[in-house]
Amino acid sequence: MSQIILTPGETSLSQWRAIYRGAMPYIDAASAPAIAASALAVERILARHQPVYGINTGFGKLASVRIGDGDLATLQRNIVLSHAAGTGEPSPVPIIRLMMALKLVSLAQGASGVKPETVAMLEALLQHGLTPVVPSQGSVGASGDLAPLAHMAAAMIGVGEIDVNGQRLSAGAALERAGLSPLALGPKEGLALLNGTQFSTANALAGLFETENLFQSALITGALATEAAKGSDTPFDPRIHALRRQPGQIETARALRELTAGSAIRASHLENDARVQDPYCLRCQPQVMGAVLDLMRQAATTLAIEANGVSDNPLIFPDTDEALSGGNFHAEPVAFAADMLALAICEIGSITERRIAMLVDPALSGLPAFLTPRPGLNSGFMIPQVTAAALVSENKQRATPASVDSLPTSANQEDHVSMAAHGSRRLLDMTRNAGAVIGIELLAAVQGCDFHAPLASSPALERARARLRRDVPMLEDDRHFHPDMEAANAIIRSGALIVAAGIDLPGLS
């Protein structure tokens, strides 16, 4: 397992991606002085015996209630227990580990007032493979992702459940097995753990990384579909795209040119093709997928900044011993980024499905009906296209912006919220849908290219075809289609198609 050193404020997207994929995070030891200084500042602030939100007062609408010194530890424990009110299925382990790493980077910047032991405990959970069981629903993305982060904090104090290699244990038992003792929270610490956008950001980052994989895979399957339909590569001419000046469009056209370079299939119809223009699903790939690329990169910029920020409240400034209350926990930037990614995922699937529909229609593709050598007796790709249409329609419904919604909470103290949590959480389901659509296109496009034998496609696309044919033979007669779709889907989701093509495709960096 690879190791990632988290430098607070400077962790890169590639490092967050590696953690999401399973790398082990460690906090940079250089952050220790800032953490200690922040904790000492809280002690000095308390010594003044003045009311400071979240340190010696109640929370939210109860901020005006002063809490005595003897109850400060109970106050922090109570906020964790009362706020651990999530519901729904447990969040995936990779998401929660990413959320924990994000919280580490936030706390380690010395603005949250937590003790070094608290940061060490969170790091120890990651290093021992102890993942708090966090229900996926219950955050509105403002005042922080309170419920999800409370379930994380509850596990740290020995309450709730922890996942250990797929086995759910009581938090106390899991900590004891790992030789860890439950954490005793000090002043400010419960609130510091609960406030923040880390749950929403972790889900959005996961959606971003999966979308990048979909984007690159769909470039390959789109190029294969163009080959199968003997489409023109003129729309990929760099002069066209230079005039429009959209950077994603320019890069996408370059990738499509490289994917199809040296194709004998393309060369076979350069002089004898009666078609003047291809359907938009082929011709406008640079424009559509280029816009997707630009949108992905905009979302990535926002999320990279958010991942390195401090988003709890109040924030501690040791140089002046001040605790300043603000609203960094409001996840509007994350909500907007998630909505952009939802649009991108939806459009990747949408144009992909249109190419599948084009390939199965002999009037458009020039190929046998439904890509079967004996249509009528066999239905071929008739129903996989229907499945693709169903998945695309489902994603269209899920792409409705979440950020434009707001429902006041906490007796109207929190009167405008971002809805970033479910806006981000839907992304993985959407990528699964779009990935299945791309898998169907892979099957259909390779089948279409098979009808052009003995002509071969480009070297890059022939490698992609060979990767599929290693697991799925050509469809000669109808057979149980589901296993073929599952095999193709696995190739897409694993990134194996991108590796097989073996060329540099545009992405987030």
- What does the oligomeric state look like here? single chain
Terminal Cα separation, in Å? 24 Å
How many strand elements?
9
If you compute it from the alpha carbons, what radius of gyration comes out, rounded to the nearest whole angstrom? 26 Å
> Helical region count?
21
CATH domain class name of the largest domain: Mainly Alpha
> Order of strands side by side in the largest beta sheet?
4-6-7
Structural class of the helices, strands and pairings?
Answer: mainly alpha
Query: How many domain units?
Result: 2
**At the fourth CATH level, what is the homologous superfamily of the largest domain?**
Fumarase/aspartase (Central domain)
Query: Which strand-content bin applies to the residues?
Result: 5-15%
Under CATH, the topology of the largest domain can be stated as Fumarase C, Chain A, domain 2
The low-confidence parts are none
User: For the residues shown, what is the average pLDDT?
Assistant: 94
- The helix content is 55-70%
| Overall outline | elongated
Main sheet overview: 3 strands, antiparallel
What's the CATH architecture of the largest domain?
Answer: Up-down Bundle
- Strand-and-helix sequence, N→C? EHEHHEHHEEHEEHHHHHHHHEEHHHHHHH
